[in-house]
Design goal:
The protein is α+β, with helices and mostly antiparallel strands. It contains 16 helices and 16 strands.
Protein backbone atom coordinates (compact mmCIF):
# COMPACT_ATOMS: atom_id res chain seq x y z
CA UNK A 1 0.00 0.00 0.00
CA UNK A 2 2.96 2.34 -0.45
CA UNK A 3 1.31 4.47 -3.15
CA UNK A 4 -2.15 4.82 -1.52
CA UNK A 5 -0.54 5.39 1.88
CA UNK A 6 1.70 8.10 0.44
CA UNK A 7 -1.32 9.76 -1.18
CA UNK A 8 -3.22 9.82 2.11
CA UNK A 9 -0.16 10.98 4.06
CA UNK A 10 0.36 13.87 1.64
CA UNK A 11 -3.23 14.98 1.08
CA UNK A 12 -4.89 14.45 4.46
CA UNK A 13 -2.42 16.47 6.58
CA UNK A 14 -1.93 19.09 3.84
CA UNK A 15 -4.91 20.76 5.45
CA UNK A 16 -2.81 20.77 8.63
CA UNK A 17 -0.02 22.60 6.82
CA UNK A 18 -2.41 25.21 5.44
CA UNK A 19 -3.97 25.64 8.86
CA UNK A 20 -0.56 26.01 10.53
CA UNK A 21 0.59 28.47 7.85
CA UNK A 22 -2.55 30.60 8.04
CA UNK A 23 -2.96 30.61 11.82
CA UNK A 24 0.73 31.10 12.61
CA UNK A 25 0.95 33.91 10.04
CA UNK A 26 -2.12 35.58 11.51
CA UNK A 27 -0.80 35.26 15.08
CA UNK A 28 2.64 36.56 14.06
CA UNK A 29 1.21 39.54 12.18
CA UNK A 30 -1.11 40.35 15.07
CA UNK A 31 1.73 40.15 17.61
CA UNK A 32 4.07 42.16 15.36
CA UNK A 33 1.47 44.88 14.75
CA UNK A 34 0.60 45.15 18.45
CA UNK A 35 4.28 45.30 19.42
CA UNK A 36 4.95 47.93 16.72
CA UNK A 37 2.03 50.06 17.90
CA UNK A 38 2.99 49.77 21.58
CA UNK A 39 6.73 50.27 21.18
CA UNK A 40 6.36 53.41 19.08
CA UNK A 41 3.30 54.73 20.93
CA UNK A 42 0.70 54.75 18.19
CA UNK A 43 -2.26 56.87 19.29
CA UNK A 44 -5.68 55.56 20.30
CA UNK A 45 -7.78 58.55 19.16
CA UNK A 46 -7.15 61.10 16.38
CA UNK A 47 -8.79 64.38 15.39
CA UNK A 48 -8.29 67.16 12.82
CA UNK A 49 -9.29 70.82 13.04
CA UNK A 50 -8.83 73.80 10.77
CA UNK A 51 -6.95 75.76 13.39
CA UNK A 52 -7.03 75.75 17.19
CA UNK A 53 -4.98 77.26 19.98
CA UNK A 54 -2.44 75.22 21.93
CA UNK A 55 -4.26 76.27 25.10
CA UNK A 56 -6.80 73.54 24.36
CA UNK A 57 -4.22 70.94 25.37
CA UNK A 58 -5.02 71.30 29.07
CA UNK A 59 -8.75 70.90 28.46
CA UNK A 60 -8.14 67.77 26.42
CA UNK A 61 -5.84 66.31 29.07
CA UNK A 62 -8.54 66.93 31.66
CA UNK A 63 -10.93 64.52 29.92
CA UNK A 64 -11.50 61.42 32.03
CA UNK A 65 -9.30 58.55 30.80
CA UNK A 66 -6.95 60.59 28.60
CA UNK A 67 -3.34 59.62 29.21
CA UNK A 68 -1.09 61.49 26.73
CA UNK A 69 -1.93 64.24 24.24
CA UNK A 70 0.20 65.24 21.24
CA UNK A 71 -0.60 68.34 19.16
CA UNK A 72 1.01 69.06 15.82
CA UNK A 73 0.73 70.86 12.51
CA UNK A 74 0.18 69.00 9.25
CA UNK A 75 0.08 70.45 5.75
CA UNK A 76 -0.30 69.13 2.20
CA UNK A 77 2.43 70.17 -0.22
CA UNK A 78 3.55 69.70 -3.81
CA UNK A 79 6.96 68.04 -4.06
CA UNK A 80 9.44 68.44 -6.88
CA UNK A 81 12.19 65.86 -7.37
CA UNK A 82 14.61 66.70 -10.16
CA UNK A 83 14.90 63.14 -11.46
CA UNK A 84 11.12 62.61 -11.61
CA UNK A 85 9.21 64.39 -14.41
CA UNK A 86 5.83 64.65 -12.64
CA UNK A 87 4.82 66.82 -9.67
CA UNK A 88 4.35 64.75 -6.53
CA UNK A 89 2.09 65.10 -3.52
CA UNK A 90 3.44 65.12 -0.01
CA UNK A 91 2.28 65.60 3.53
CA UNK A 92 4.37 67.66 5.93
CA UNK A 93 4.03 66.68 9.59
CA UNK A 94 5.62 68.60 12.45
CA UNK A 95 7.82 66.93 15.09
CA UNK A 96 9.81 68.37 17.99
CA UNK A 97 13.34 69.35 17.01
CA UNK A 98 16.05 67.07 18.31
CA UNK A 99 13.79 64.40 19.86
CA UNK A 100 11.00 61.95 19.22
CA UNK A 101 7.35 63.10 19.40
CA UNK A 102 5.31 61.99 22.39
CA UNK A 103 3.08 59.78 20.23
CA UNK A 104 3.37 58.18 16.79
CA UNK A 105 7.12 57.96 17.15
CA UNK A 106 9.48 57.32 14.25
CA UNK A 107 11.61 54.27 13.50
CA UNK A 108 14.93 55.72 12.36
CA UNK A 109 16.27 53.55 9.53
CA UNK A 110 19.08 55.79 8.30
CA UNK A 111 20.47 59.19 9.22
CA UNK A 112 19.13 61.24 12.14
CA UNK A 113 16.16 63.34 13.22
CA UNK A 114 15.88 67.07 12.55
CA UNK A 115 17.95 69.34 14.78
CA UNK A 116 16.99 72.66 16.40
CA UNK A 117 17.70 75.77 14.35
CA UNK A 118 17.67 73.95 10.99
CA UNK A 119 14.46 74.98 9.28
CA UNK A 120 15.30 73.21 6.01
CA UNK A 121 15.75 69.70 7.42
CA UNK A 122 13.22 66.91 6.98
CA UNK A 123 13.02 63.15 7.39
CA UNK A 124 10.98 61.11 4.90
CA UNK A 125 9.20 57.77 4.95
CA UNK A 126 11.24 54.80 3.77
CA UNK A 127 8.93 53.54 1.00
CA UNK A 128 8.94 56.94 -0.75
CA UNK A 129 12.73 57.18 -0.40
CA UNK A 130 13.22 53.72 -1.92
CA UNK A 131 11.02 54.51 -4.92
CA UNK A 132 13.09 57.60 -5.79
CA UNK A 133 16.49 56.44 -4.57
CA UNK A 134 16.67 59.21 -1.96
CA UNK A 135 19.16 59.11 0.90
CA UNK A 136 20.32 61.41 3.70
CA UNK A 137 22.02 64.42 2.19
CA UNK A 138 19.76 64.66 -0.87
CA UNK A 139 17.44 67.63 -1.43
CA UNK A 140 13.97 68.13 -2.83
CA UNK A 141 11.71 71.13 -3.38
CA UNK A 142 8.34 71.61 -1.68
CA UNK A 143 5.63 74.14 -2.51
CA UNK A 144 3.78 75.02 0.69
CA UNK A 145 0.82 77.28 -0.07
CA UNK A 146 2.39 79.95 -2.30
CA UNK A 147 6.03 79.60 -1.27
CA UNK A 148 8.70 77.20 -2.46
CA UNK A 149 11.37 75.79 -0.18
CA UNK A 150 14.37 73.54 -0.77
CA UNK A 151 14.48 70.85 1.90
CA UNK A 152 17.42 68.71 2.93
CA UNK A 153 16.78 65.07 3.78
CA UNK A 154 18.60 64.09 6.99
CA UNK A 155 16.89 60.80 7.80
CA UNK A 156 14.87 57.87 6.48
CA UNK A 157 12.14 56.70 8.87
CA UNK A 158 9.09 54.47 9.31
CA UNK A 159 6.02 55.22 11.40
CA UNK A 160 3.15 53.09 12.79
CA UNK A 161 0.85 55.90 11.67
CA UNK A 162 1.77 55.49 7.99
CA UNK A 163 2.12 51.77 7.35
CA UNK A 164 -0.23 52.24 4.40
CA UNK A 165 0.61 55.56 2.73
CA UNK A 166 -2.44 56.65 0.73
CA UNK A 167 -2.88 60.14 -0.66
CA UNK A 168 -6.23 61.92 -0.30
CA UNK A 169 -9.11 60.39 -2.32
CA UNK A 170 -6.89 57.58 -3.61
CA UNK A 171 -8.03 53.95 -3.59
CA UNK A 172 -4.68 52.20 -3.20
CA UNK A 173 -1.23 53.15 -1.87
CA UNK A 174 1.06 54.97 -4.29
CA UNK A 175 4.56 54.87 -2.84
CA UNK A 176 6.06 56.71 -5.80
CA UNK A 177 3.73 59.72 -6.00
CA UNK A 178 2.91 60.40 -2.36
CA UNK A 179 5.36 60.80 0.48
CA UNK A 180 5.36 61.77 4.15
CA UNK A 181 7.88 64.36 5.36
CA UNK A 182 8.46 65.17 9.02
CA UNK A 183 9.68 68.72 9.64
CA UNK A 184 10.66 70.63 12.75
CA UNK A 185 7.67 72.13 14.55
CA UNK A 186 8.97 75.73 14.52
CA UNK A 187 9.94 75.53 10.86
CA UNK A 188 6.53 74.26 9.77
CA UNK A 189 4.73 76.79 11.99
CA UNK A 190 6.68 79.60 10.34
CA UNK A 191 6.06 78.27 6.84
CA UNK A 192 2.29 78.09 7.35
CA UNK A 193 1.69 80.75 10.06
CA UNK A 194 0.66 78.29 12.75
CA UNK A 195 2.57 79.79 15.67
CA UNK A 196 0.81 78.84 18.90
CA UNK A 197 -1.75 76.72 17.04
CA UNK A 198 -2.33 73.18 15.78
CA UNK A 199 -4.57 71.38 13.32
CA UNK A 200 -4.05 67.72 14.27
CA UNK A 201 -4.03 65.88 17.56
CA UNK A 202 -3.62 62.33 18.78
CA UNK A 203 -3.96 60.92 22.25
CA UNK A 204 -3.75 57.70 24.21
CA UNK A 205 -6.20 56.54 26.85
CA UNK A 206 -5.84 54.49 29.99
CA UNK A 207 -6.39 50.75 29.91
CA UNK A 208 -10.05 49.81 29.94
CA UNK A 209 -11.36 53.24 28.89
CA UNK A 210 -14.07 53.26 26.22
CA UNK A 211 -12.69 55.41 23.40
CA UNK A 212 -16.19 56.15 22.08
CA UNK A 213 -16.80 58.40 25.05
CA UNK A 214 -13.52 60.25 24.39
CA UNK A 215 -14.45 60.65 20.71
CA UNK A 216 -17.82 62.18 21.62
CA UNK A 217 -16.22 64.59 24.09
CA UNK A 218 -13.63 65.68 21.52
CA UNK A 219 -16.30 66.25 18.87
CA UNK A 220 -18.13 68.60 21.23
CA UNK A 221 -14.98 70.42 22.34
CA UNK A 222 -13.46 70.85 18.86
CA UNK A 223 -16.64 71.65 16.90
CA UNK A 224 -16.05 75.45 17.05
CA UNK A 225 -12.61 74.98 15.49
CA UNK A 226 -13.72 73.30 12.27
CA UNK A 227 -13.28 69.73 13.44
CA UNK A 228 -14.48 67.00 11.10
CA UNK A 229 -14.92 64.44 13.86
CA UNK A 230 -12.53 62.44 16.02
CA UNK A 231 -11.85 58.81 15.13
CA UNK A 232 -10.79 55.71 16.99
CA UNK A 233 -7.62 53.87 16.04
CA UNK A 234 -9.64 51.17 14.28
CA UNK A 235 -10.99 53.85 11.90
CA UNK A 236 -7.56 55.32 11.21
CA UNK A 237 -6.87 54.79 7.50
CA UNK A 238 -3.55 52.99 7.84
CA UNK A 239 -4.64 50.92 10.85
CA UNK A 240 -7.87 49.98 9.04
CA UNK A 241 -5.93 48.64 6.05
CA UNK A 242 -3.64 46.63 8.32
CA UNK A 243 -6.61 45.18 10.21
CA UNK A 244 -8.28 44.31 6.92
CA UNK A 245 -5.18 42.38 5.84
CA UNK A 246 -5.23 40.47 9.12
CA UNK A 247 -8.92 39.63 8.75
CA UNK A 248 -8.36 38.35 5.21
CA UNK A 249 -5.59 36.11 6.50
CA UNK A 250 -7.87 34.80 9.23
CA UNK A 251 -10.60 34.06 6.67
CA UNK A 252 -8.12 32.12 4.54
CA UNK A 253 -7.28 30.03 7.60
CA UNK A 254 -10.91 28.94 7.73
CA UNK A 255 -11.65 28.32 4.05
CA UNK A 256 -8.56 26.80 2.41
CA UNK A 257 -7.84 24.04 4.99
CA UNK A 258 -11.52 23.03 4.85
CA UNK A 259 -11.30 22.43 1.10
CA UNK A 260 -8.20 20.25 1.47
CA UNK A 261 -9.72 18.31 4.35
CA UNK A 262 -12.86 17.51 2.33
CA UNK A 263 -10.77 16.26 -0.58
CA UNK A 264 -8.66 14.24 1.85
CA UNK A 265 -11.79 12.71 3.40
CA UNK A 266 -13.00 11.53 0.01
CA UNK A 267 -9.59 10.07 -0.88
CA UNK A 268 -9.21 8.24 2.44
CA UNK A 269 -12.71 6.79 2.25
CA UNK A 270 -12.15 5.54 -1.30
CA UNK A 271 -8.78 3.93 -0.54
CA UNK A 272 -9.97 2.17 2.61
CA UNK A 273 -13.22 0.94 1.00
CA UNK A 274 -11.24 -0.65 -1.83
CA UNK A 275 -8.79 -2.19 0.63
CA UNK A 276 -11.61 -3.74 2.69
CA UNK A 277 -13.26 -5.07 -0.47
CA UNK A 278 -9.96 -6.73 -1.44
CA UNK A 279 -9.48 -8.29 2.03
CA UNK A 280 -12.97 -9.72 2.50
CA UNK A 281 -11.57 -13.23 2.76
CA UNK A 282 -9.00 -12.26 5.40
CA UNK A 283 -11.67 -10.41 7.39
CA UNK A 284 -13.92 -13.51 7.35
CA UNK A 285 -11.01 -15.72 8.44
CA UNK A 286 -10.19 -13.40 11.34
CA UNK A 287 -13.83 -13.37 12.47
CA UNK A 288 -13.95 -17.18 12.19
CA UNK A 289 -10.92 -17.50 14.50
CA UNK A 290 -12.68 -15.43 17.14
CA UNK A 291 -11.55 -11.86 16.55
CA UNK A 292 -14.23 -9.44 17.73
CA UNK A 293 -15.84 -6.62 15.77
CA UNK A 294 -13.88 -4.08 17.81
CA UNK A 295 -10.56 -5.80 17.06
CA UNK A 296 -11.28 -5.93 13.32
CA UNK A 297 -12.41 -2.30 13.25
CA UNK A 298 -9.46 -1.15 15.35
CA UNK A 299 -7.08 -2.87 12.92
CA UNK A 300 -8.19 -0.63 10.05
CA UNK A 301 -8.45 2.47 12.22
CA UNK A 302 -4.84 1.94 13.32
CA UNK A 303 -3.83 1.79 9.66
CA UNK A 304 -5.52 5.13 8.96
CA UNK A 305 -4.11 6.66 12.16
CA UNK A 306 -0.57 5.55 11.36
CA UNK A 307 -0.67 6.97 7.84
CA UNK A 308 -2.28 10.22 9.01
CA UNK A 309 0.19 10.61 11.89
CA UNK A 310 3.15 10.28 9.53
CA UNK A 311 1.68 12.99 7.34
CA UNK A 312 0.98 15.24 10.32
CA UNK A 313 4.59 15.08 11.52
CA UNK A 314 5.81 15.88 8.01
CA UNK A 315 3.42 18.80 7.49
CA UNK A 316 3.94 20.22 10.98
CA UNK A 317 7.55 21.02 10.17
CA UNK A 318 6.78 22.16 6.63
CA UNK A 319 3.85 24.28 7.80
CA UNK A 320 5.99 26.04 10.42
CA UNK A 321 8.69 26.78 7.85
CA UNK A 322 6.24 28.05 5.23
CA UNK A 323 4.41 30.03 7.90
CA UNK A 324 7.56 31.96 8.69
CA UNK A 325 8.21 32.63 5.00
CA UNK A 326 4.62 33.82 4.58
CA UNK A 327 4.96 36.10 7.60
CA UNK A 328 8.22 37.57 6.31
CA UNK A 329 6.55 38.38 2.99
CA UNK A 330 3.70 40.11 4.81
CA UNK A 331 6.14 42.02 7.00
CA UNK A 332 7.96 43.35 3.94
CA UNK A 333 4.67 44.32 2.28
CA UNK A 334 3.35 46.05 5.39
CA UNK A 335 6.71 47.70 6.19
CA UNK A 336 6.89 46.49 9.77
CA UNK A 337 10.30 47.15 11.35
CA UNK A 338 10.06 44.04 13.54
CA UNK A 339 8.92 40.44 13.28
CA UNK A 340 7.57 38.34 16.13
CA UNK A 341 7.10 34.77 14.94
CA UNK A 342 6.37 32.49 17.87
CA UNK A 343 3.67 30.06 16.75
CA UNK A 344 1.88 28.60 19.72
CA UNK A 345 0.85 24.96 20.07
CA UNK A 346 -2.77 25.81 19.34
CA UNK A 347 -2.51 25.85 15.54
CA UNK A 348 -0.54 22.58 15.51
CA UNK A 349 -2.99 20.82 17.84
CA UNK A 350 -6.04 22.13 15.99
CA UNK A 351 -4.61 20.95 12.67
CA UNK A 352 -3.72 17.50 14.01
CA UNK A 353 -7.11 16.99 15.67
CA UNK A 354 -8.91 18.18 12.54
CA UNK A 355 -6.97 15.80 10.28
CA UNK A 356 -7.44 12.78 12.55
CA UNK A 357 -11.13 13.55 13.01
CA UNK A 358 -11.70 13.91 9.27
CA UNK A 359 -9.83 10.65 8.58
CA UNK A 360 -11.85 8.79 11.23
CA UNK A 361 -15.20 10.13 10.04
CA UNK A 362 -14.36 9.46 6.39
CA UNK A 363 -13.55 5.80 7.09
CA UNK A 364 -16.13 5.14 9.81
CA UNK A 365 -18.72 3.66 7.45
CA UNK A 366 -16.29 1.33 5.69
CA UNK A 367 -14.69 0.22 8.97
CA UNK A 368 -18.07 -0.45 10.61
CA UNK A 369 -19.17 -2.47 7.59
CA UNK A 370 -16.01 -4.58 7.75
CA UNK A 371 -16.29 -5.11 11.51
CA UNK A 372 -19.94 -6.15 11.43
CA UNK A 373 -19.61 -8.46 8.45
CA UNK A 374 -20.46 -12.09 9.47
CA UNK A 375 -17.64 -14.60 8.72
CA UNK A 376 -19.72 -16.65 6.28
CA UNK A 377 -20.60 -13.51 4.31
CA UNK A 378 -17.09 -12.11 4.37
CA UNK A 379 -15.50 -15.33 3.07
CA UNK A 380 -17.80 -15.39 0.05
CA UNK A 381 -17.49 -13.05 -2.93
CA UNK A 382 -19.73 -9.97 -2.78
CA UNK A 383 -23.20 -10.45 -4.20
CA UNK A 384 -23.63 -9.01 -7.68
CA UNK A 385 -25.74 -5.88 -7.94
CA UNK A 386 -29.48 -6.37 -8.35
CA UNK A 387 -30.66 -5.14 -11.73
CA UNK A 388 -34.22 -4.35 -12.70
CA UNK A 389 -35.99 -3.25 -15.81
CA UNK A 390 -36.08 0.47 -16.39
CA UNK A 391 -34.65 3.27 -18.45
CA UNK A 392 -33.61 6.87 -18.03
CA UNK A 393 -35.02 7.96 -21.38
CA UNK A 394 -38.35 7.20 -23.11
CA UNK A 395 -38.51 3.99 -25.13
CA UNK A 396 -38.77 5.61 -28.52
CA UNK A 397 -35.76 7.81 -27.82
CA UNK A 398 -33.79 4.84 -26.50
CA UNK A 399 -34.52 2.87 -29.68
CA UNK A 400 -32.73 5.53 -31.66
CA UNK A 401 -29.55 5.36 -29.56
CA UNK A 402 -26.62 3.06 -30.18
CA UNK A 403 -25.64 0.38 -27.68
CA UNK A 404 -22.79 2.37 -26.09
CA UNK A 405 -25.03 5.36 -25.36
CA UNK A 406 -27.74 3.15 -23.84
CA UNK A 407 -25.11 1.56 -21.56
CA UNK A 408 -24.14 5.04 -20.37
CA UNK A 409 -27.74 5.94 -19.46
CA UNK A 410 -28.21 2.53 -17.85
CA UNK A 411 -25.21 3.09 -15.59
CA UNK A 412 -26.50 6.52 -14.56
CA UNK A 413 -29.86 5.04 -13.60
CA UNK A 414 -28.34 2.16 -11.61
CA UNK A 415 -26.01 4.41 -9.56
CA UNK A 416 -27.65 7.84 -9.46
CA UNK A 417 -25.80 8.92 -6.31
CA UNK A 418 -22.40 8.20 -7.86
CA UNK A 419 -23.43 10.00 -11.05
CA UNK A 420 -24.70 13.02 -9.08
CA UNK A 421 -21.46 13.32 -7.07
CA UNK A 422 -19.41 13.12 -10.27
CA UNK A 423 -21.51 15.80 -11.95
CA UNK A 424 -21.25 18.07 -8.90
CA UNK A 425 -17.48 17.56 -8.81
CA UNK A 426 -17.04 18.56 -12.43
CA UNK A 427 -19.47 21.45 -11.99
CA UNK A 428 -17.54 22.73 -8.99
CA UNK A 429 -14.23 22.54 -10.86
CA UNK A 430 -15.72 24.36 -13.83
CA UNK A 431 -17.27 26.99 -11.53
CA UNK A 432 -13.89 27.68 -9.92
CA UNK A 433 -12.28 28.09 -13.33
CA UNK A 434 -15.05 30.43 -14.53
CA UNK A 435 -14.81 32.40 -11.29
CA UNK A 436 -11.06 32.87 -11.62
CA UNK A 437 -11.36 34.00 -15.25
CA UNK A 438 -14.36 36.18 -14.45
CA UNK A 439 -12.24 38.19 -12.02
CA UNK A 440 -10.25 39.77 -14.87
CA UNK A 441 -13.40 40.63 -16.83
CA UNK A 442 -14.97 42.12 -13.71
CA UNK A 443 -11.96 44.36 -13.08
CA UNK A 444 -12.03 45.54 -16.71
CA UNK A 445 -15.76 46.24 -16.45
CA UNK A 446 -15.34 48.16 -13.19
CA UNK A 447 -12.48 50.24 -14.61
CA UNK A 448 -14.38 50.99 -17.80
CA UNK A 449 -17.54 51.99 -15.93
CA UNK A 450 -15.59 54.11 -13.45
CA UNK A 451 -13.45 56.05 -15.91
CA UNK A 452 -15.87 56.17 -18.86
CA UNK A 453 -19.13 56.78 -17.01
CA UNK A 454 -18.34 58.21 -13.56
CA UNK A 455 -14.97 59.98 -13.51
CA UNK A 456 -14.59 61.16 -17.08
CA UNK A 457 -12.03 63.90 -16.50
CA UNK A 458 -8.45 63.79 -17.78
CA UNK A 459 -7.02 65.85 -14.90
CA UNK A 460 -8.31 66.42 -11.37
CA UNK A 461 -7.05 69.58 -9.64
CA UNK A 462 -7.34 69.77 -5.86
CA UNK A 463 -6.97 72.74 -3.53
CA UNK A 464 -6.04 72.67 0.12
CA UNK A 465 -8.73 75.24 0.93
CA UNK A 466 -12.05 76.13 -0.76
CA UNK A 467 -11.60 78.60 -3.60
CA UNK A 468 -13.88 81.21 -5.13
CA UNK A 469 -15.73 80.26 -8.29
CA UNK A 470 -13.66 82.84 -10.21
CA UNK A 471 -10.79 80.34 -10.02
CA UNK A 472 -12.83 78.04 -12.26
CA UNK A 473 -12.84 80.63 -15.05
CA UNK A 474 -9.07 81.00 -14.79
CA UNK A 475 -8.67 77.23 -15.15
CA UNK A 476 -10.97 77.20 -18.18
CA UNK A 477 -8.63 79.66 -19.91
CA UNK A 478 -5.62 77.37 -19.56
CA UNK A 479 -4.25 76.04 -22.89
CA UNK A 480 -5.92 72.80 -23.98
CA UNK A 481 -8.76 72.85 -21.44
CA UNK A 482 -12.07 71.95 -23.12
CA UNK A 483 -14.29 71.74 -20.06
CA UNK A 484 -13.86 72.35 -16.35
CA UNK A 485 -16.43 71.61 -13.66
CA UNK A 486 -16.38 72.52 -9.96
CA UNK A 487 -17.02 70.14 -7.11
CA UNK A 488 -16.64 70.17 -3.36
CA UNK A 489 -15.84 67.28 -1.04
CA UNK A 490 -16.09 67.52 2.75
CA UNK A 491 -15.83 64.79 5.39
CA UNK A 492 -18.96 64.04 7.38
CA UNK A 493 -20.50 61.60 9.81
CA UNK A 494 -23.43 59.86 8.11
CA UNK A 495 -26.03 58.42 10.47
CA UNK A 496 -29.32 56.58 10.10
CA UNK A 497 -30.99 55.71 13.37
CA UNK A 498 -28.37 54.07 15.58
CA UNK A 499 -25.98 53.44 12.68
CA UNK A 500 -23.10 55.82 12.06
CA UNK A 501 -20.49 55.89 9.33
CA UNK A 502 -17.54 58.19 8.67
CA UNK A 503 -17.85 59.24 5.02
CA UNK A 504 -17.87 62.25 2.70
CA UNK A 505 -20.34 64.69 1.21
CA UNK A 506 -19.87 65.39 -2.49
CA UNK A 507 -21.24 68.58 -4.01
CA UNK A 508 -21.65 68.39 -7.80
CA UNK A 509 -23.21 70.67 -10.39
CA UNK A 510 -26.72 69.58 -11.31
CA UNK A 511 -25.71 69.25 -14.97
CA UNK A 512 -22.34 67.60 -14.26
CA UNK A 513 -20.90 65.69 -17.21
CA UNK A 514 -17.38 64.90 -15.93
CA UNK A 515 -18.13 63.59 -12.42
CA UNK A 516 -21.49 61.83 -12.69
CA UNK A 517 -23.66 59.64 -10.51
CA UNK A 518 -23.57 56.36 -12.38
CA UNK A 519 -25.83 54.16 -10.25
CA UNK A 520 -28.44 54.42 -7.53
CA UNK A 521 -25.98 52.77 -5.10
CA UNK A 522 -22.52 54.32 -5.03
CA UNK A 523 -21.48 53.09 -1.62
CA UNK A 524 -20.71 55.13 1.50
CA UNK A 525 -20.91 58.48 -0.34
CA UNK A 526 -23.58 61.18 -0.11
CA UNK A 527 -24.13 63.46 -3.13
CA UNK A 528 -25.67 66.92 -3.10
CA UNK A 529 -25.78 69.66 -5.65
CA UNK A 530 -22.88 72.08 -5.26
CA UNK A 531 -25.21 74.96 -4.34
CA UNK A 532 -27.00 72.83 -1.73
CA UNK A 533 -23.71 71.84 -0.13
CA UNK A 534 -22.49 75.44 0.03
CA UNK A 535 -25.77 76.50 1.67
CA UNK A 536 -25.47 73.58 4.10
CA UNK A 537 -21.98 74.67 5.09
CA UNK A 538 -22.97 78.34 5.24
CA UNK A 539 -20.22 79.38 2.80
CA UNK A 540 -20.19 81.64 -0.19
CA UNK A 541 -20.03 79.80 -3.55
CA UNK A 542 -16.77 77.91 -3.60
CA UNK A 543 -15.16 75.14 -5.60
CA UNK A 544 -12.51 72.53 -4.96
Amino acid sequence: MKAPAASIALVVPSGVALLVISLSTYEALRDSADAYYDRYRFGHVFANVKRASLHLEQRIKALDGVQTVALRVSKQAVLDIEAFPEPLMGRLVSIPEGRQPLLNQLVLRRGRLVEPGRSDEVVINESFAKEHGLKPGDTLAAIIDDSKAVLCIVGIVMSPEFIYVIKPFALIPDKKRFGILWMGRKALEAADDYAGAFNELSLTVSLGIDTRRIVQALDTMLAPYGAVGAIDRKDHLSAWFVENELQQNQTSAQILPTIFLLVAAFLTSTVLARLIATERGEIGLMKAFGYSNVQVGWHYLKLVLAITALGILLWWGLGAMLGRLSTENYIQTLNFPLLIYQPGPGSFLIGAVASITVAMLATARAVRGAAQMPPIVAMNPPAPPSYQLGTLVPGRVADGLDESTRIVFRQIRRWPGRALITVLGFAGALAMMVLSLLFYDAIDEIAQAHFDEVQREDVALGFGNPQATTVLHEIERLPGVLLAEPMRIVPADLSVGHRRHRGTLHGLPEDASLARIYDSYIGMLAFLSLDELNVLLGDRPVTE
